[in-house]
Amino acid sequence: EESNQFVLELAIPGYNKKNIAIDVDNENLKVSGNLEMEQKEGESHRRREFNFSSFEREFILPETVDTTKISAKYENGVLYIHLPKKEEAVDQPPRQIKID
Questions:
Q1: Alpha-carbon Rg for the chain in angstroms
Q2: Residue of 77, 57, 80, 60 lying closest to 2 (CA atoms)
Q3: Residue 23: what pLDDT?
C-alpha cells in the first residue's frame, strides 16, 4: 500500500501479456492466464522439464479503490497492477483551520 494507491505484484514468468487477462466486476478483480505449448509438425519430445498451464486468481477490492483508473504493466515476468485510491480515501496532509 502506498499513500495514493495499492500495488499488486504477481510473479508469472514465461507468459506473454497477450496470454494474461485482467477483469474487474464491481469490487472483484480477476487475473487469469493461459499458456499453451505450440508443437510444430514433426517435433517430438521424450521429456519436458516444465509444464505449461493456466492460472486464475480473484481478489476482493476495498471500497477505497477507484476501479475506473486501474492500470497494469507486465515486465520481466512480473505483472504490476496499480489500484488507485479514490480521492476521498487518500490521506490528506495536516492543515490548520482559520478561525473567523
A1: 20
A2: 80
A3: 95
Burial 8-20 (b: 16+ CB within 10 A, else e): bebebeebeeeeb
8 Å CB contact between 64 and 89: yes
Neighbour count for residue 5 (Cβ, 10 Å):
17
Q: How far is CA 89 from CA 6, 25, 36, 72, in A?
A: 12, 20, 41, 21
DSSP strand pairing (20-25 vs 28-34): antiparallel
Q: How far apart, in whole angstroms, are the C-alpha atoms of residue 66 and residue 86?
A: 5
Q: Cα separation of 23 and 31, whole Å?
A: 7
In this structure, what C-alpha cell is assigned to residue 83?
489500484
Q: d(Cα 52, Cα 31) in Å, to the nearest integer?
A: 17
Mean pLDDT along residues 5-14: 92
Average pLDDT, integer, range 39-65: 76
